[in-house]
Amino acid sequence: MDIVILAVVIAVVVLGALGGLVVGSRRRKPLPPPPPAAPDITAPPAEPHVGEEAETPREEPRRTIEEVDLPAGAGPVVIEEPPAAEAPEIEIPEPTAGRLVRLRARLSRSQNALGKGLLTLLSREHLDEDTWEEIEDTLLTADVGVQPTQELVERLRERVKVLGTRTPEELRGLLREELITLVGPEMDRTVHTENAAGGPGVVMVVGVNGTGKTTTTGKLARVLVADGNTVVLGAADTFRAAAADQLQTWGERVGAHVVRGPEGGDPASVAFDAVKEGKEMAAGAVLIDTAGRLHTKTGLMDELGKVKRVVEKQAPLDEVLLVLDATTGQNGLVQARVFAEVVDITGIVLTKLDGTAKGGIVIAVQRELGVPVKLIGLGEGADDLAPFEPDAFVDALIGE
């Protein structure tokens, strides 16, 4: 028994010694280094936020204007005001008297083929049937039309037969006389701008798309201003975006007042207002630019008739001018016929007569409608619209 107790005591002592050794070794191990201190971070200036992110900005030191160093010699800052918009300069158009004579050279460059061709054929020593057929072909090619061609050839046959021997001067005089007769010197080609009731003359400009109605209206304003009239322009083409602006530019150049409405608005309303303002201003003439329309579209043509009826509630229409592109030749006659049925055409304006157009269209369109050609366009210039003068026109056809 004593042996057992002794063994237990020895075991306890041994275990205690071992435990002391382990604790001592643990105390001798180095401790890990402490974590580095967090760096000082300067918060950026607060930015303004909206809604839930909004916060009050931090106050930051700011310098006053006295503390800011200015460059040496710097004077007070002067803020320049933008220059006031200058009113457009009013142009004075050139007189219309004799304008076609001044533009005759431009017209003759593209029209001499007709006159020279006829003179060459008539100068032949023997005028047989083949020659007369060539003369007919020349006239038809120049868009003179079948009926006027037959009349002209018949009269030339008679006069050449009576004349006998023909000098170039005699032939030129003969051809000139017959062409002037065919053009119709007795027709009234005045653009009427005098109202019987004492108000302004009212002129409505109509035509198909692309014939140059707005440009023609602007140029016609210049013609009337050059003759001493005051003009009001009605921008009743509310369907083409740039039409009213274009007409406004034309009006400003000659000091004409422009009446316009909202884009896509009722054109009859604009035309009505233009005539009303023209009467209030005691203007000499009111020009109404209408929208281009296809002559085959019944609805559009009916609307044009409505514009005419609405305008006549304010004042009678003194002129309805149909603008035709002379380069379309005989195709333009179909358009002219339809427009004449809707709005009672009183005069024709032939544009682009200085290009590839053939001069005979003047004769054909007058014969087709029974109304005169009153104005012709001979170029892109502002004053290239001329009152039609039969003598000057024929002289340009047959050349010098």
Automatic annotation (TrEMBL):
Catalytic activity: GTP + H2O = GDP + phosphate + H(+)
Sequence ranges of Basic and acidic residues compositional bias: 49-63
Keywords per UniProt: Cell membrane, Cytoplasm, GTP-binding, Hydrolase, Membrane, Nucleotide-binding, Receptor
Family: Belongs to the GTP-binding SRP family. FtsY subfamily.
Main enzyme class: hydrolase
Membrane topology, from the record: Peripheral membrane protein
Self-association and partners: Part of the signal recognition particle protein translocation system, which is composed of SRP and FtsY.
Binding site for GTP: 207-214, 289-293, 351-354
Protein's recorded name: Signal recognition particle receptor FtsY
Enzyme Commission no: 3.6.5.4
HAMAP family documented for this protein: FtsY
Described function: Involved in targeting and insertion of nascent membrane proteins into the cytoplasmic membrane. Acts as a receptor for the complex formed by the signal recognition particle (SRP) and the ribosome-nascent chain (RNC).
Name of encoding gene: ftsY
Keyword Repeat belongs to the record: no
InterPro entries, per database record: AAA+_ATPase, P-loop_NTPase, Signal_recog_particl_SRP54_hlx, SR_rcpt_FtsY, SRP/SRP_N, SRP54_GTPase_dom, SRP54_N_sf
Any Pfam family: SRP54
Highest taxon above the source species: Bacteria
Organism field: Streptomyces pimonensis
Domain named SRP54-type proteins GTP-binding: residues: 372-385
Region (Disordered): 25-63
Predominant subcellular localization, coarse grouping: membrane
Subcellular location: Cell membrane; Cytoplasm
